[in-house]
């Protein structure tokens, strides 16, 4: 299989409301990614766009709408959508565009503009519940997270205090991210005392609604060696789906994340993930999700992620830095762009360019993961120097 | 590269910028109404709810009793074989105490959504529903519950023909 | 696996909607466009500093070169009907009386244009190539919307002043 590299990355600030339209945000991120790689639109053979539900931006055919700002003028272009997992699936799609031998250079752009949606972006989520057997009960999106979090806590005997440590860590990390929406110095008590939305979920357990875009430039080995002195290689990719009958699954464990991770580890030749992965950006729209996903990624035993967090292992200067970017909880959560932001973070971290966020010890290999839809999609990408 | 970037793009607005017209916006309300077909399996499910019964489907391939019912088994990928009535009792698999509506408006009285594993269906075959006649602090995972039905005259063939599930005495 | 339905009452549907509305920001370039309409009764275009393509409505960037465009500048709200349609029914299927002419108007000197209504003209007299100009609402009635243009009407060629 042809080797594929990431050679450039860019992103906008993540904000609650951006003045820019979605296509303007896309252009800002895409242009920065190209500039950082020293490339122009002429060098781009194809474009991959990732964007989550059209109902946020309120623009149907969002892929087509975003195309010009994503550099797809008169180019092969595809938009993908796998819910929250989109931001990590987009570079996977970029990878197979190139690994297939069809294209040499691909621009990957993810965008979300959730502020358009009123009275609240949650309204756009209502129809993910079954229209006949669930929606008449008056559900909202928080239910599925609250139900999953409670199950996870109860099965493993994990407390809200232990989970709140994740929010504290990520929001603190985000203070060092120039694009962050919610960087903050908080205590566990702050999280526990914040408004209860849907017990066990409090307001500070949740990432915000955001506007923003992110982009990466990916290319084949022969191009990467020409244009970059520090290419970051795609070592493994994985994706997996579970049934939409979500009440028929045991929510305490994300099996689909494990399957996606196993696919990526096999491709990367990784036998002991805990030793061979040096930096992790798991999906953290809620604080407990970071723990849940670390377990699904086989980076600790089931129920063991809270201990890892309490011991400081997942701090930026810990043995396994987790969400050194600040994650969705701190940087923000413009759905698809948030997933790709994690891939940008790995790119910067592995090249030693993350500034104040740089994890010590020059990490050699990193993993980004996202998750979406009715808690059923897992996407994983492994990058290495 | 991030260390070299001094100005990051993106212009943050406050809600007042929009409310007070400091930036120009266009409002639009989608006029999209839907009538979703219940389909074969859920069509029968709703009719049985009107009769005050919960019905599932059995798959001959894996021998699971599937709830909500479906006409094909997603694991065996074959048609399911027969209708099976299940109990209107079950066990709380997980629950929440929810203080907000879908638009994040506060609720005075919290809702108690739960996944309920229904007796008679295969293990783990939960459905989403609500709990009632119970104080939020008394709910726990593993709690035994029973469906509280609307009166026959009030039922309309809907999941809400069950008002909620309440704790079974001694459960 | 199919079950035969003999009672049509057994065909059950469940009604619903998606209860959201949208507030779209005009964006950086869109803001300049709508301000020109609202505040000056003009249209605005932005030109690519690289290839010179003149975008109307203005854009922040050139989709061809991917460079930032220059500041939007006002242009005359005049152009040519590139294509048109005569609508006899509204969105709900009701008869429109009189019918409404919608045209794509290519704005002079730009690579762009806009879809808008034509007015002050009999539908039978509209043709591709017709020269038209925008009729703006009085300044006090304008809100910063594309509807601040009431319609486009044929340009009346007056004899040169003597």
Structure description:
The complex is a heterotrimer of chains A (385), B (171) and C (162). Chain A contains 14 helices and 12 strands. By secondary structure, chain A is an alpha/beta fold. Chain A has one domain (4-118, 208-384): 3-Layer(aba) Sandwich (Peroxisomal Thiolase, Chain A, domain 1). In chain A, the strands form 2 sheets. Chain A has a 9-stranded mixed beta sheet. In chain A, strands 6-7 form a two-stranded antiparallel ribbon. In chain A, β11 and β12 form a beta hairpin. In chain A, α6 packs across α11. The longest helix of chain A is centred in the N-terminal third of the chain and has 16 residues, at 22-37. Chain B is mostly beta strands. Chain B has one domain. The longest helix of chain B is centred in the first third of the chain and has 12 residues, at 39-50. The radius of gyration of chain B is 23 Å and the shape is extended. Chain C has one helix at residues 27-40; strands at residues 13-17, 21-25, 43-47, 54-55, 73-75, 78-89, 95-107, 113-118, 131-136, 149-154. Chain C has 162 residues and is mainly beta. The mean pLDDT of chain C is 92. The N and C termini of chain C lie far apart (86 Å). Chain C has a single domain (19-154), classed as Beta Barrel (OB fold (Dihydrolipoamide Acetyltransferase, E2P)). Classes of the chains: A alpha/beta (385), B mainly beta (171), C mainly beta (162). The A-C interface holds A 17-21, 23-24, 27, 30-31, 34, 40-41, 55, 58, 68-69, 71, 73, 115-119, 123-124, 126-127, 131-132, 135-136 and C 14, 16, 18-31, 59-61, 63-66, 68. β5 of chain A pairs antiparallel with β2 of chain C, so a sheet runs across the interface.
Keywords:
heterotrimer, A: alpha/beta, Peroxisomal Thiolase, Chain A, domain 1, nine-stranded mixed β-sheet, two-stranded antiparallel ribbon, B: 171 residues, mainly beta, five-stranded antiparallel β-sheet, 12 strands, 10% helix, extended
Q: Under CATH, the topology of chain A is which?
A: Peroxisomal Thiolase, Chain A, domain 1
Label the structural class of chain C: mainly beta
Order of helices and strands of chain C: EEHEEEEEEEE
Structural domain tally of chain C: 1
For the terminal residues of chain A, how far apart are their CA atoms? 18 Å
State the end-to-end distance of chain C. Answer: 86 Å
Integer average pLDDT of chain C = 92
């Amino acid at each position: 299989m042809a080797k594929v590299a990431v050679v450039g990355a860019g992103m906008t600030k993540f904000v609650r409301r951006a003045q820019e339209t979605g296509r303007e945000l896309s252009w800002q991120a895409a242009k920065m990614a190209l500039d950082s790689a020293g490339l122009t639109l002429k060098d781009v053979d194809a474009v991959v766009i990732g964007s989550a539900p059209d109902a946020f931006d309120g623009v149907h055919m969002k892929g087509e709408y975003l195309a010009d700002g994503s550099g797809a003028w008169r180019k092969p272009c595809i938009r993908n959508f796998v819910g929250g997992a989109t931001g990590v699936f987009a570079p996977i799609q970029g990878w197979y565009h190139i690994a297939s031998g069809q294209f040499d250079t691909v621009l990957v752009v993810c965008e979300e503009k959730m502020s358009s949606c009123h009275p609240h972006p949650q309204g756009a989520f209502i129809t993910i519940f079954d229209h006949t057997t669930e929606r008449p009960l008056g559900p909202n999106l928080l239910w599925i997270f609250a139900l999953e979090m409670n199950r996870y806590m109860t099965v493993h005997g994990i407390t809200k205090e232990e989970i709140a440590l994740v929010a504290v860590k990520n929001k603190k990390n985000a203070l060092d991210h120039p694009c962050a929406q919610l960087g903050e110095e908080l205590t566990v008590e702050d999280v526990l005392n914040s408004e209860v939305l849907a017990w066990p979920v409090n307001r500070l357990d949740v990432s915000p609604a955001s506007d923003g875009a992110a982009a990466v430039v990916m290319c084949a080995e022969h191009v990467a060696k020409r244009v970059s002195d520090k290419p970051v290689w795609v070592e493994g990719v994985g994706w997996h789906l579970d049934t939409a009958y979500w009440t028929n699954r045991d929510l305490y464990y994300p099996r689909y994340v494990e399957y996606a991770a196993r696919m990526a580890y096999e491709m990367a030749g990784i036998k002991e993930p805990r030793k061979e992965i040096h930096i992790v950006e798991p999906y953290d729209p809620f604080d407990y999700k970071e723990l849940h996903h670390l377990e699904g990624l086989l980076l600790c035993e089931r129920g063991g992620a809270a201990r890892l967090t309490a011991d400081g292992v997942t701090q930026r200067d810990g043995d396994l830095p987790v969400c050194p970017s600040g994650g969705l909880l701190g940087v923000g959560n413009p759905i698809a762009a948030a997933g790709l932001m994690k891939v940008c973070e790995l790119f910067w971290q592995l090249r030693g360019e993350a500034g104040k966020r740089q994890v010590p010890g020059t990490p050699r290999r990193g993993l980004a993961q996202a998750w979406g839809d009715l808690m059923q999609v897992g996407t994983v990408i492994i990058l290495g120097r | 590269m991030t260390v070299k970037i001094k100005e990051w793009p993106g212009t943050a607005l406050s809600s007042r910028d929009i409310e007070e017209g400091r930036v120009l916006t266009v409002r639009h309300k989608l006029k999209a109404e839907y009538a979703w077909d219940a389909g074969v399996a859920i069509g029968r499910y709703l009719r049985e709810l009107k009769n005050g019964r919960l019905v599932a489907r059995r798959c001959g391939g894996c021998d699971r009793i599937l709830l909500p019912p479906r006409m094909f088994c997603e694991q065996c990928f074959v048609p399911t074989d027969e209708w099976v009535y299940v109990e209107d009792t079950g066990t709380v698999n997980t629950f929440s105490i929810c203080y907000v509506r879908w638009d994040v408006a506060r609720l005075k009285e919290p809702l108690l959504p739960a996944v309920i594993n229904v007796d008679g269906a295969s293990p783990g075959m939960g459905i989403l529903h609500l709990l009632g006649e119970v104080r939020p602090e008394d709910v726990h995972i593993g709690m035994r519950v029973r469906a509280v039905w609307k009166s026959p005259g009030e039922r309309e063939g809907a999941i809400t023909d069950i008002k909620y599930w309440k704790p079974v005495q001694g459960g | 696996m199919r079950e035969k339905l003999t009672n049509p009452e057994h065909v059950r549907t469940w009604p619903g909607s998606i209860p959201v509305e949208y507030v779209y920001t005009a964006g950086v370039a869109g803001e300049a466009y709508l301000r020109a309409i609202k505040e000056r009764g003009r249209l605005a275009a932005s030109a690519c500093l690289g290839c010179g393509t003149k975008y109307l409505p203005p854009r922040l960037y050139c989709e061809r070169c991917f460079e930032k465009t220059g500041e939007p500048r006002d242009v005359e709200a005049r152009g040519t009907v590139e294509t048109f349609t005569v609508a006899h029914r509204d969105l709900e299927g009701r008869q429109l009386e009189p019918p409404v002419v919608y045209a794509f108007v290519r704005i002079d000197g730009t690579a762009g244009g806009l879809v808008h209504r034509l007015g002050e003209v009999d539908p039978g007299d509209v043709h591709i190539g017709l020269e038209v100009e925008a009729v703006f609402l009085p300044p006090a009635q304008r809100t910063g919307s594309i509807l601040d243009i009431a319609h486009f009407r044929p340009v009346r060629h007056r004899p040169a002043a003597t």
